Amino acid sequence: MTTATQPALNAAFLESKFATALSYADYTATGNDTQQAAWQAIYEQTALTPAQSELIKSFTRNTKILVSSGVWCGDCVQQCPLIARIAEANPLIDLRFVDRDTHEDLAVQLKICAGLRVPIAIYMAEDFEPVSVFGDRTLARYRAIAERQFGAACAIPGAPMDEDELAATLQDWLNETERAHLILRLSARLRQKHND
What is the 3-state secondary structure (H, E, C) of the chain? Predict the structure, then answer.
């Protein structure tokens, strides 16, 4: 339920949040040296395949993505650089980040299982109308974490992300980005606006 202290998750509210949000580079720069190094390591480990790049380049609708995140968050470190790589492949994708704790009025509207989870990505149309909300972990990431936690061994803290897990998590984020694009591309409202 929306209250006076909790604004509705609508275009006007999202536009105001997007206006204060940071680019990927500016957002990661808010972290300390250790945090910045962790984000950079995953970013450098991440690469789109030629087929993924071509798919993203084919997107024709302006898509805005606002991510509620924490530069301190391990799940954000291992997923947000993937979203950045996707956004870099097409200038029509405008990606921005806000800190979950600084923007708690947004975060409380994105709770998952009663928790303030991160990262949570809000996909929006060019006019900030919400299209989808995705996060906190993709299915591939949840499967990998479950296998580690319920399996015979635990991951070493700070270890590089497994290549198969990275590729599967990247594909999950790409699938949601493509889904949002198709929602926008097939929208009767936007097709009328753009005469296509």
Answer: CCECCECCCCHHHHHHHHHHCECHHHHHCCCCHHHHHHHHHHHHHCCCCHHHHHHHHCCCCCEEEEEEECCCCHHHHCCHHHHHHHHHCCCCEEEEEEECCCCHHHHHHHCECCECCCCEEEEECCCCCEEEEEECCCHHHHHHHHHHHHCCCCCCCCCCCCHHHHHHHHHHHHHHHHHHHHHHHHCHHHHHHHCC
Burial (0-12, 13-18, 19+ Cβ within 10 Å), 25 = exposed
Residue 97: count other Cβ atoms within 10 Å of its Cβ. Answer: 27
In a domain, 5, yes or no: no
The answer to whether the CB of 55 falls within 8 A of the CB of 178 is: yes
pLDDT at 3: 41
The answer to whether residue 4 is domain-embedded is no
Interatomic CA distance for residues 70 and 110, integer angstroms:
14
What CATH number did the domain enclosing 183 receive?
A: 3.40.30.10
Give the whole-angstrom CA distance, residue 116 versus residue 104.
Answer: 9
* Owning domain of residue 174: 11-194
In a domain, 2, yes or no: no
Note if the pTM is more than 0.90.
yes
> 2 pLDDT band (50/70/90 cuts)?
very low
Answer yes or no: is 6 within a domain.
no
Q: Number of folded domains in the chain?
A: 1
